[in-house]
Specification:
The protein is built from 14 helices and 2 strands. β1 and β2 form a beta hairpin.
């Protein structure tokens, strides 16, 4: 049947395109599946297999370095550094991000360099180096706007908001996140939109606008459920617990913390697990203390 032949032919062409996209020809001969392994890296990140992901980044970076594939090497260094920063290994992250930035600069890769600078800014914020972080994000934001790199601009706006929050500049932080939200919605990036909702929740909560904070956080949690993003759900549940805690709603706070704890254990996120257990202990103590006062 003609229809069957067309489908079979289309399938072959599709597989061939995927093969060309995911396998890289090595300068010395042969091929290596850098693209396929990058797709695998995204899955490992989502399911929390971070030790395996780090090992893969190291292996692939060594392979790219040996093959003289500087651009691939720089991206692997950057992604590894971003992962380390996210897992709070900030000094190790800094070393990898600086190496990646140097390669991007050497290659004249503006997109790569701007993304790398965002990672460097995040690391500076975590280490309390606010002036350096401000310089990085301000200069990089200007470059991203001029070049029309809207996705990278979203990341930079988020980092600028985090920096403003650390400095107690809540209204400035909200403005950056709202701009990021608008761009993310136009680009159709659900993860970015959910993250913007979650960060707005944090800002509103710190400003005492708890009802608005809950509204934003619930929107993030709903998107996390829809996408099946366990990492995002984990942080949204933790944020919701903090909002309930500030509102004096201890039972609801503990319920969110228990849900977040279960996800953290599934993901193997030990730093987050420790934070949650500490918070649960503090909330339970406060509730017992309040109960004793009421009994008096």
């Amino acid at each position: 049947m003609p229809g069957r032949k067309v489908r079979k032919s289309a399938g072959k062409r599709h597989k061939f395109r995927l093969g060309r996209l995911h396998w890289s020809a090595l300068p010395g001969g042969g091929h290596y599946p850098f693209g396929l392994r990058a797709a695998k890296a995204e899955v490992l990140l989502l399911v929390g297999r971070w030790t395996e992901l780090e090992q893969m980044y190291r292996q692939d970076c060594d392979r790219a370095r040996a093959a003289g594939m500087r651009g691939v090497q720089a991206r692997l260094l950057m992604h590894h550094g971003e992962l380390l920063g996210w897992r709070r290994h900030d000094k190790r992250a800094r070393v990898l991000l600086e190496e990646a930035a140097a390669i991007f600069r050497e290659l004249g890769d503006d997109r790569g360099l701007l993304q790398c600078r965002n990672g460097q800014a995040v690391t500076c914020i975590a280490l309390g180096e606010y002036e350096r972080a401000e310089a990085l994000v301000t200069e990089s934001e200007g470059s991203a706007r001029r070049r029309g790199y809207r996705q990278i601009l979203c990341w930079l706006l988020n980092s600028h908001a985090v920096l403003c929050r650390e400095r107690g500049q809540i209204e400035r932080a909200i403005a950056y996140i709202e701009e990021r939200m608008t761009i993310s919605q136009e680009l159709g990036g659900l993860t970015e939109v959910a993250s913007s909702h979650m960060n707005l929740a944090v800002m509103f909560s710190e400003d005492g606008r708890h009802d608005l904070a809950l509204e934003q956080n619930r929107a993030a949690l709903e998107l996390g459920h829809r996408m099946g993003d366990a990492v995002l759900q984990n942080y949204a549940l933790y944020n919701q617990a903090q909002i309930f805690r500030k509102m004096g709603r201890g039972v609801e706070c503990l319920d969110c913390l228990r849900q977040a704890l279960a996800i953290s254990r599934h993901l193997g996120d030990e730093p987050m697990e420790r934070d949650i257990q500490k918070d649960m202990s503090n909330v339970e103590k406060a509730m017992r203390k309040n109960k004793k006062i009421e009994d008096l």
